[in-house]
Amino acid sequence: MTRTLRRPPTPFLLSAAIPMRHEHQDVRVKFDALKSLLLQIFLKHGTSAFVADILAENCAGCERDGAISHGIFRIPGYLASLDTSWVDGKAESEVSVISPSFIRIDARNGFAQPALAVAAEAINAAVKETGIAVVATRNSHHFSALWPDVEPFARRGLMAITFVNGLANVVPHGGRAPVYGTNPLAFATPVAAADPLVVDQATSVMANGEVRLHALANKKLPAGTGVDAQGKPSNDPHAVLAGGALNTFGGYKGSSIALMVELMAGALTGGQLSVENDFADCVGAQTPKAGQLLIVIDPERGGNNDFAGRVSVLCDRLIDAGQERLPGARRYENRRQAELFGIPMSEQKLLELQTLAGS
Ligand code: NDP
User: Fold this and answer.
1) Is residue 160 included in any domain, yes or no?
2) Would you call 116 exposed, middle or buried from its count of C-beta atoms within 10 A (0-12, 13-18, 19+)?
3) Does 91 have pLDDT greater than 50?
4) Would the pLDDT of 272 be above 50?
5) Most CB contacts within 10 A, which of 172, 226, 264, 345?
6) Residues classed as catalytic
7) In this predicted model, what pLDDT tens digit does every residue of 130-152 receive, in sequence order?
8) pLDDT at position 258 over 60
9) Which atom of ligand 1 lies nearest, measured to the CA of 164?
């Protein structure tokens, strides 16, 4: 049976609904060139070649897809954490298969993405054997967007959902003091004859990196984004960053989702809670020492022999119902543009990266 596609596979939605990059861009850089610069920078700051390769691919991918708050903007934070030895750039994580579907990773104070890469074989084996892999990572630093952790699984026909906790900079609903991290979660699923559907979001009103971008641009935050150091509502990004905190999204319901992420990522994994990060001995470090839970599911085990087709039907219905675009469409469009024309960047930023890389 042939199915009529009612939207192009990529970007699979209305470009008018896709916010694009906003800062002034002078130059275009190819993905491989950016990755290679970033790789040199990570190596110079003491990571192993394995870690440098994974972080460079991840960070260049964020920049390419327009996940700007988690692209090259994060380099100073990565380097501060490496230079103060807050994070171990050479850590070799330990993967333990606890039961046929439960995998435990001790990232040994290293980055989360290389830890997941080391567990890839165990994850694939668990999904093949049992239909599901539950991957609990502790002692890990996640300083990036979450979509790169889940999208590859969906490209292989699997569903994946992941949760990460972080630094306590989010107040619970009605509270005055920060308890949660911005506690993101991401979900990816295959879609028949289209790119995967990928949802990737913080459970705070705004990601911390976005607040920092607002502060750099001296731009007010939307009402309800956060509080100042006294716990009073504030739309000043500087006040939110200087001892203030963000709000969770969606009132008490969003606050409970942040709670769930905190427990899944920070407690179930044997990791730290967001409130337990203490930078006292590593002033300037920025990466949160936290945990990550990843669940990978083979949707065919659910009994639906056209799962990806069903997702496609739902996506079409959402658009027919008036949803302006699907999650992930903006990133895919940025990726498509970057593949055609290169990744847009200011000349100043490119020079800074070249200097850091020593090239
Ligand atoms: P956004 O609010 O920008 O976007 C959240 C999700 O909603 C994305 O999947 C986005 O798709 C989608 N979306 C946005 N607008 C629409 C729309 N109009 N219709 C349908 N879908 C839409 O993200 P956040 O600010 O919450 O988070 C930004 C990033 O920060 C994420 O990548 C997250 O992983 C990362 N982060 C990482 C943390 C860490 O500790 N490592 C902590 C907190 C956040 P699209 O991407 O296509 O715009």
Assistant:
1) yes
2) buried
3) yes
4) yes
5) 226
6) 69-70, 210
7) 999 999 999 999 999 999 999 99
8) yes
9) 40
